[in-house]
Amino acid sequence: MTPDEALRKIAFLLEWRGASPYRVRAFHTAADAVRDLPPGRVDAAQAERLRGVGPVTAEVISQASTGAVPSYLARLLAEADPAAGAGWDLAAASTGDCHLHSDWSDGGSPIEDMAAAARALGHQWAVLTDHSPRLTIAHGLSPDRLRSQLEVVADVNSRMGPGFRLLTGIECDILDDGSLDQEEDLLDRLDVVVASVHSKLRSEPDPMTARLLAAVRNPHVDVLGHCTGRIITGRGRPQSRFDARAVFAACAEAGTAVEINCRPERRDPPDDLLAQATAAGCLFAVDTDAHAPQQLHWQSTGYARAARMGLGADRLITTWPLGQLLRAKSSRQRPPGRLPSRAAPAHGG
């Protein structure tokens, strides 16, 4: 066992038990700090000199550096719910993340930093999904800016080396009629499209259902993002109302994955809807919706939720190898005619 693995597993088990996010984050921060340490024994005093490492995490590092299971981890494993093992296995099998933002929209870090952070976590791929034009408050990408970003992503990939690929994508607004907020020829060029509702979240159930059905049946859409739009921290925001049975049935039929959004303020969909989507036979994308490199750690919370629902890796596209992910996209049939997709006039969302 390496120090990095021990610290990540402790963080996961603490999350599973419902520990404070701050406590969980301390172990992830320490894992980041030891990632580049050379192999070999590390004493606790040496470990504690690393940035972000305290006495508890230093002792874990020291014990794991000998290949032993640290006593802190052994205690958590002895106390763990047996189902936690399935959750950890899913988290350890993660190959990618379908939803992350850069400073091209409302993220705080450059594209290359987000890609490097995903690669450092062991991902084989990650999808850059900055916002679409309608979300001006988030500096959404106009068609021309998106075209420029495609060139930047190609350049980043040329310098990332083998074993990792940053995929092109977008978090595309679902407009009021269910159409998509970007030019169709650009959507054709993207590797992955996440479609989300960001406006009129308190619409009546019938129009919201029609809006979501149109979007998830659109052959450009690969993932339905944070489907209820809820916010569960601070002042909060209630979840949108729609016919979940109909929407999830359409997702399952179309092969559109339902996002398990891992942001602490979202954790969307809620458990009852996640259970409905599971029963409907949907695929899922366990996504961080990260706006900064350290937020990529949030993904393990989504895998814990997936494990509690009894989901296996075959249903989680974020555990799929890159080739399987891209083959699945290309194999989806496009129905006759062209579904609506357009860039909307820019305004606040």
Give a summary of the structure in a few sentences.
With 349 residues, this protein is an alpha/beta fold. It is 42% helix and 9% strand. It has helices spanning 3-16, 21-34, 44-48, 55-64, 71-79, 83-92, 111-120, 143-160, 184-189, 205-216, 244-254, 271-279, 299-308, 322-331; strands at residues 125-128, 165-173, 180-181, 192-196, 223-224, 257-261, 284-287, 341-342.
What does this structure look like?
- The protein has about 350 residues and is an alpha/beta fold.
- It folds into 2 domains: about 5-80, DNA polymerase beta, N-terminal domain-like (DNA polymerase, domain 1, Orthogonal Bundle); about 90-340, TIM Barrel.
- The protein has helices at about 5-15, 20-35, 45-50, 55-65, 70-80, 85-90, 110-120, 145-160, 185-190, 205-215, 245-255, 270-280, 300-310, 320-330, and strands at about 125-130, 165-175, 180, 190-195, 225, 255-260, 285, 340.
- The protein has a 6-stranded parallel beta sheet with strand order 1-2-4-5-6-7.
- Helix 1 packs parallel to helix 5 and helix 6 packs across helix 13 (about 300-310).
- Residues about 335-349 have low confidence and may be disordered.
